[in-house]
Amino acid sequence: MSRSLPSTARASAERAGPRPQVPAYLRIAEEIRRDMDAGLLPPGSRLPAERMLAARFDVNRQTLRSALQQLREEGLVVTDKRGSFVADAEHPPPAGRRPAHLPVFPGGAGAGGARTDARLYLAGAPAALADLLAVDPGEPVLAHRHCTFGAMGEVLQEALTHFSPVAVDEIPELRRYRARLRGHQPDLRLLYHWMDRAGLRPAMRESITLSRRSARPAVRRLVRDGRGRVLEVTDLSFTPVWDELVFEYQGPGVTAARTAGRGPGS
Q: pLDDT confidence of 241, banded at 50, 70, 90?
């Protein structure tokens, strides 16, 4: 049974025509990412053999290899003579491709000159975000992962942003990035200025989740335009090594959004 799309999504679909089918390798890469996020494939663990993965997803070996290559380009998987592993300190990606787990909001250098890595790629829309992004679950959307690393190579901040088709359609800079994904280190520090320049009048809402089950707080940023359409959803996780965390943005005609939280032990 097909899911009824929001009216804005239906209107976009009518203008754009039939949606392209999600490539099999992108669906497989998304499934493997979910296994990582769920802890079924923890950092440093070895992935099942290619033939086993190909049988699990009912695809040929070449399609499976394309999915693994996608994960390697994101810095999530490392392959050597012994097989493929989830990236960690003992299995680091090649220089310039560090494990991508969450962002600063999105893009730019880390505080105090901390080392960062950013990746822009196509990913199947997670089912939990499909309605917000006005797409079908698994439909390819532009995604951005940004990591900040500490002095010992530990991940301090990790961010994952999903852009809606509306954002890509109406922001020329994102359209250009979308056309040249591979091998490019994106710089999205001017993203909200691009939104303003495109006349989208971005409005932001942030929520912070603190859980006893996890030592890493989570922050979600939801950005809508002046018509209420979602432009991006960013999920940020961080290691709380400071006492206060502040996110602030102010653009033409936009009220500054400020969120502050005290760290553990304060």
A: low
CA–CA gap between residue 34 and residue 22 (Å, rounded): 17
107 φ/ψ sector (left φ>0, alpha ψ -120 to 50, else beta): left
Nearest to 225 by CA among 197, 244, 248: 197
Could you report the per-residue pLDDT of 13-42, keeping only the tens digit for each?
Answer: 444 444 445 678 888 888 888 788 777 888
Phi, psi of 209 (to 5 degrees): -115, 125
C-alpha neighbours within 13 Å on the C-beta side of residue 27: 14
**Of the spans 1-10, 76-85, 133-142, 169-178, which averages the highest pLDDT?**
133-142
Segments of the chain assigned E as strands:
77-80, 83-86, 115-124, 140-149, 155-163, 203-209, 218-224, 230-238, 244-249, 257-262
pLDDT at position 94: 64
Angle between the 61-73 and 24-37 helix axes, to the nearest 10 degrees? 60
CB 90 within 8 A of CB 153: no
Q: Per-residue confidence at 214, pLDDT binned at 50, 70, 90? A: low
Q: Which residues contact 96 (CB under 8 A, 6 or more apart)?
A: 117, 185
| Residues 218 and 191 sit within 8 Å (Cβ to Cβ) | no
Which residues contact residue 266 at a Cβ distance below 8 angstroms, ignoring those fewer than 6 apart? 243
Find residue 209's DSSP bridge partners.
218
